[in-house]
Write a structure and sequence with these properties.
This protein is of the alpha/beta class. It has 8 helices and 6 strands, in the order βααααβαβαβαββα. 42% of the residues lie in helices and 12% in strands.
């Protein structure tokens, strides 16, 4: 294991459940045809990919600047007040630090939102690299492998030696498209997400055995890019 890379939403903080409650009402007010079942489609998308999808598939006409400002207001409330660290994350972080494993964060969220989490929970010193979808050329968000390939590059490690923890279909596909070993995380509020392409599935941090993960990486041939 050359590095361990965490997604943020639904993996480090329980923000996804708060987004579901706030975002659903917000999107229904913007898009008359929006239904609760549509919510699962947007988990793991960057804010820019979300806006593109809403304009192309749902006829959204709100100017992008207004849309982004409204979303940032919700993000400040969610990340700054409502979200909590998911149980077990800090313990796994300590295990990785004790092993000397490089740790990174790769998130579809804007850098400003990531910064709220890093500062509120004092996590800046925990990650050797922090990568936001904001930094991707051409806005190639998940499921493109771009964000994970960029993260591996910044860590100076080969992608095939990286372990990624993800909770969304788009995130899992992004990691696997980058030829990385992926842990799919059933966090209690993502049952609608198809995580079948993950190498292993867990429903709590206590189920992650780093020695077993390393063994699985060595014994199995990683599937080619999907």
């Amino acid at each position: 294991m050359d590095a361990f890379i965490f997604d943020m939403d639904g993996v480090i903080v329980d923000s996804e459940r708060h987004w579901k409650s706030l975002e659903g009402f917000f999107l229904k007010s913007l898009v008359p045809g929006w239904r609760p079942d549509d919510q699962g489609k947007i988990i793991g998308l960057s804010i820019h990919d979300l806006y593109r999808m809403l304009t192309e598939e749902y006829g959204l006409r709100r100017p992008k600047e207004d849309f982004l400002a409204l979303y940032h207001g919700m993000a400040e409330e969610i990340y700054g007040e409502k979200a909590s660290i998911i149980p077990g994350f800090t313990e796994l972080l300590s295990q990785l630090e004790n092993r000397g494993t490089p740790i990174a964060l790769a998130s579809s969220s804007p850098r400003a939102w990531i910064n709220i989490v890093l500062d509120r929970f004092d996590l800046r010193g925990s990650f050797r690299a922090v990568v936001s979808a904001d930094e991707l050329e051409g806005g190639a968000g998940k499921p493109s492998p771009a964000i994970y390939l960029l993260t591996a590059s910044r860590l100076g490690v080969p992608s095939k030696g990286c372990v990624v923890m993800e909770d969304s279909r788009n995130g899992v596909l992004s990691a696997r498209n980058a030829a990385m070993f992926c842990i799919g995380f059933r966090n209690g509020f993502n049952e609608e997400q198809d995580l079948s392409q993950a190498n292993v599935l867990v429903s709590s941090y206590s189920q992650i055995d780093l020695d077993a993960i390393e063994g699985a990486m060595q014994l199995s041939q990683l599937a080619p890019p999907l």
